Structure formats: structure tokens, C-alpha cells
Amino acid sequence: MNPGTPFDASRIHAFSSGSTFAGVPAATLDDLQGARAVIVGAPFDWGTSYRPGTRFGPKAIRESDYLAADAYRPHLPTGLNALEGVVDIGDVELHPGDIEGDLDRIAATIERISGAGSIPIVLGGDHTITYATATGVARTYGFGEVALVHFDAHADTGETTGYGSLYGHGTPMRRLIESGAVPGSRFVQIGLRGYWPGPDTVSWMRERGMRGYMMTEIEDRGLKAVVDEAVAHAGDGADAVFLSVDIDVVDPGMAPGTGTPEPGGLTSRQILDTVRRMSRELRIVGADIVEVSPPYDGPGAITSFLANRIVMEVLNGLAERAAGVSS
Ligand code: MN
Ligand code: MN
């Protein structure tokens, strides 16, 4: 371990992080050190529709940690050290306001990580970035070959942002389906609720074969039954799965620090256990955790701490899979 190594070249914005996630070694895109998983920040919030602030997400997620940077931190339930083989390359250099340019920069970064055989774990950023993160992975594994498990209150399948532009945090899944990076039939969405999108978009989603689980169905059938089905669907014919976690899938009572909060979501415990299970049971080739907006966080930075632990549970699931733990 090389704990708490400060970044140098990557400290490009005032909102960039100063040290690595959980004290893992710092690395660079040119030298990923053969890592199994690579943490990278995408401090992007120029695609938000309501409350901004996710540019501060990567920094807050990395810093929501009460253990010393060089602490040994085995996962209590499994005893595994999920940080073995994990490095952090800092944040993608972004140009605030340049949405399309930044999507290109993020996709190119992710493509290089997955092309090197590592699993990118992206700290967002608003959900616009998933058009780029999932595209980067699809360039490595093949357009149409990657399934996408999407945790969110919102479907993010808008034809436009509502103001006519194509790129924003309400449209990334539509863009992925249109480009062919991820076919609609390879989507599984979990946690949907609220009052958006409208019937035209819902019909479009159905025609593309998108699979979705609303919170009402999760309440009726139980989370385990739904996740059993989601795992089977995502794993069916797809040897590569991308995991996208919008923090607003969790109830705003437990995750208030987000831009478009929607009451009535999953609990912290449910999302933690579910992402770990999916990372163990599916071949995850990339993940992002998005929509953490620290300026709106509650007391105690509870949303940022939860996002930090979601990353930890994904890494733990990957470690369990690598160790041959099946369930
Ligand atoms: Mn979203
Ligand atoms: Mn959302």
C-alpha cells in the first residue's frame, strides 16, 4: 500500500480530490499497475436539470472515510480485503460547460481502462456521464454485448432534456440505446418511482424491451425476488455487465444529497447488499455511482458516506467473485 498518495497532475480543478479512495495507491492512465479495478472521478454537473453540485461528488465520496489511509480494512462479513489490486487515477480532466467534449474525454478514459483489462469504477458526476462511461466499456467489449443494471428513481430515457438538447442527466439511457452501445433488451432498471417520464417515453421503453422494476413492485414482491430476476435477465446472453447506481434510488431520508430527490426509495442497507450481490454474481466490467451532490447533503455527510460504502460493497463483490465465492 502507498496510503494517501496525493495526486499531482490530476489536481486540475478546485473541486478535484487531493488524495485517493480509501488510501489505495495512486496510479495514472499511462500506468494502471495491472490493477483489477481502477477508481476514477468524473466531477461533472453541467447536465443537471434542477439542483447542481455533483462536481463536488468525487471529492466528497473519496473523503467520506473515518479510517486512516493506511488502515487494513477487511470486509467484516467476508474477511476479504476488497482494496487488493485497486488503484485510483484521480479525476478526468473536464472542461466545465463543454458537455459533448467532456463526454468524449470520459469515454476515452474509460475505454483505456477497460481496454487494459481493468474494471473502471467511476465516481460522478451527474447521470449524463453514463452515456460516456457505458460507451467506453462497450467499445472494449463490443457494442450490443454489454448489459446495463441501472439503479435509479428515474428511467433517464428522455428523448431530450425537456429543453431540446440531447445530453443531460435525464437522457443517457436513450442515447446508449440509440447508439447501439447497450440494446434496450439488455437494460434492467431497479427502483423506478414518481412522476416522470410520461406515457410516450414509457411506450418507447417497452418497445425497446427494457426491463424495469418499480418500487411498488419491489414492495409487493420483495427485493430478493426482484433481484433474482434482474440477475438472471442481466446475465442472460451477456458476458459483460455495467452497473450504474444513481444515489437517488435510495430514499432521500437516507440520501438527501442529490439533485432530484424522489421520496419512497430503497434503504441504505438494501442498496449496499444488492450491489455486492450483483458484483459477486455477474461479470461486472465497469460501474459508476452518480448524482451525489454534497451541497445538498444532510448533517453528517450521510449521502457521501453511503456512496463511499456503495463503492466498497461493489469492490467487495468483485473480491468475492475473484475468490470464487458463489453466493
Ligand atoms: Mn439518473
Ligand atoms: Mn435519478
What does this 3D model show about the protein?
The chain has 327 residues and is an alpha/beta fold. The protein has a single domain (10-322), classed as Ureohydrolase domain (Arginase, Chain A). 33% of the residues lie in helices and 15% in strands. The protein contains 9 helices and 8 strands. Strands 2-1-3-8-7-4-5-6 form an 8-stranded parallel beta sheet, with helices on both faces. It starts with 36 loop residues before the first strand and ends in a 5-residue tail after the last helix. The model has no long low-confidence stretch (mean pLDDT 95). One manganese (II) ion (MN) binds at residues 152-154, 246, 248, 260, 291.
What is the global morphology? globular
CATH architecture: 3-Layer(aba) Sandwich
CATH superfamily: Ureohydrolase domain
Structure classification: alpha/beta
CATH topology: Arginase, Chain A
Give the strand content: 5-15%
- Neighbour order of strands in the largest sheet: 2-1-3-8-7-4-5-6
**Number of contiguous helices:** 9
**Chain-averaged pLDDT:** 95
Helix content: 25-40%
- How many beta-strand runs? 8
Question: Mind telling me the CATH class?
Answer: Alpha Beta
Poorly predicted regions are none
Please give the largest β-sheet.
8 strands, parallel
Number of domains: 1
The N- and C-terminal alpha carbons lie at a distance of: 29 Å
Bound compounds, each kind once, are: manganese (II) ion
Radius of gyration: 18 Å
The secondary-structure element order is EHEHEHEHEHEHHEHEH
